[in-house]
Write a structure and sequence with these properties.
Helix content: 10-25%
Strand content: 35-45%
Number of strands: 24
Structural class: alpha/beta
């Protein structure tokens, strides 16, 4: 992400570029739109059939009655597919100027200059740029957009696609499954360790647009990869919808870390389904940082299927005026000697609302498993609100489960102490907030942690949103 300290209006990434799209679907969702998306991508028949089934299931499901207020979503007033350019390119110079300038401004070139293993940039519905180091090619690593993955590796995609998150999972998983476009396909061969992160950037530029990327990561036995995604959108008066699906398969003795730093504008509904399965001795780590959006509903999950598998979710949520961050995690222990840890930090200001919604389930036979959950909420004024909705389903005797939850305000004594040392009140509040979230921030790569702290400080000062 960019290190530029210049603010564009109230929200750093709130600028929009002229729209010069090569194809824009008409508004609204229908089977014809679903078939058109599949046809434009020249997909195999099995994917078209999957999309159509998912579309009809989406129509049959009611909106979730829990979580954030989704009543403002008008599915008939959303554009479900935009093709911003007629080709995907491998160098920045080949991109259309308006797209290149957009990614220049949000810092993608700077990220690539830091010798990252791979960069993928999605603009509207499709990935328009991607780069991967030749060394990774030699090792057999696949890092491409999901459309290319389906085209070049159809049998591999078919083997895993929708098996961890079927379209019947929930209404928005069904919506994604019917109109998905873009996202990332990552395959790490057995024993290969990718030491530098793979990074993806998702950008919405259009108004009243739906972005529905689909990400599939397969880490074979003994492999390692760290995947980072960043998300931004301009500010419009009309609401936009982001509904992604992420499926991750962590094989025996493999390790995957998935880091999200999102800063959507406050007209975006961010409704995401993310799930991983961890086999024997595997490690799955989610690092989830949520700023912006009108409503976020996101609960990264790990299915601990193999003995001694380990799952971890570290999350930060910041909610300001007219925002609701409903985030959490799910840990399902299927095998013995598995362990999980959930650390959730949330901050609410100016009447914002944060919620932790979590599930820990230990299945019969998962003996000697352990789970630790810590939910800490910080309220910066009397008008803000925090809720905790933990669910524990323990179906085995020989286990250890811990849950801690705290809600606090910024201590007046700490503020007084810092102010007595010549620090202004806003700066003192910022220091205390950054100290509060530091257990999660320290797990994020340096360039992202700097950006995250800076964004939160801007939120604290009222400069953003």
């Amino acid at each position: 992400m960019a290190k530029d300290n210049t603010l564009e209006f109230e929200y750093k990434y709130g600028f929009s570029m002229p729209q010069k799209n090569v194809f824009t679907a008409k508004k609204g969702l229908s089977e014809d739109i679903v078939r058109a998306i599949s046809g434009l991508k020249s997909e195999p028949k099995w994917m078209l059939d999957y999309r159509v089934k998912a579309y009809h299931y989406f129509l049959s499901k009611k909106m979730p009655p829990w979580g954030g207020d989704l009543s403002k979503i008008n599915f008939d007033d959303i554009t479900y597919f935009i093709r911003a350019t007629d080709k995907q390119v491998g160098t920045w110079e080949e991109l259309p100027d308006e797209i290149k300038n957009t990614y220049d401004r949000i810092g993608v070139p700077e990220a690539e200059k830091k010798f990252l293993s791979g960069v993928s940039a999605q603009y509207e519905s499709e990935v328009v740029y991607e780069s991967i180091h030749k060394e990774l090619d030699k090792k057999g690593v696949i890092f491409c957009d999901m459309d290319t993955g389906l085209r070049k590796h159809p049998e591999l995609v078919k083997q895993y696609f929708g098996t961890l998150i079927p379209y019947t999972d929930n209404k928005f998983a069904a919506l994604n499954s019917s109109v998905w476009s873009g996202g990332s396909f990552v395959y790490i061969p057995r024993g290969v360790k990718v030491n530098l992160p793979l990074q993806a950037y998702f950008r919405m530029n259009a108004e009243r647009f739906g972005q529905f990327e689909r990400t599939l990561i397969i880490a074979e036995e003994g492999s390692y990869v760290h995947y980072i995604e960043g998300c931004t959108a301009p500010i419009y008066t009309k609401s936009s919808l982001h509904s992604a699906v992420v499926e991750i398969f962590v094989k025996k003795n493999a390790r995957v870390r998935y880091t999200t730093v999102q800063n959507w504008s406050k007209n975006v509904f961010n409704l995401v389904t993310k799930r991983a399965v961890a086999e024997e001795d595997a490690i799955m780590e989610w690092v989830d940082c949520n700023l912006g959006s009108q409503v976020t509903m996101k609960y990264p999950a790990v299915y601990l299927k193999g003995e001694r598998a380990r799952g971890e979710v570290l999350s930060i949520a910041y909610s300001g005026k007219d925002q609701h961050q409903d985030a959490g995690a799910k840990m399902i222990h299927f095998a013995p000697n598995t362990s999980s840890r959930i650390i959730s930090k949330s901050i609410a200001k100016d009447g914002g609302r944060t919620s932790y919604r979590g599930l820990v389930q230990i299945m019969p036979g998962a003996k000697n498993s352990s789970s630790y959950v810590s939910c800490d909420a910080l309220l910066l004024d009397p008008d803000s609100r925090s809720d905790t909705y933990p669910t524990m389903r323990i179906k085995e005797q020989d286990v250890e489960v811990q849950h801690e939850a705290t809600v606090e305000r910024i201590g007046e004594e700490k503020l007084f102490y810092l102010q007595s040392r010549g620090i202004s009140k806003p700066d003192a509040e910022g220091l205390l907030v950054n100290g509060f979230i530091s257990p999660v921030v320290k797990e994020i790569p340096l360039e992202y942690s700097i950006e995250l702290n800076r964004l939160i400080n801007l939120e604290m000062s009222g400069s953003v949103g």
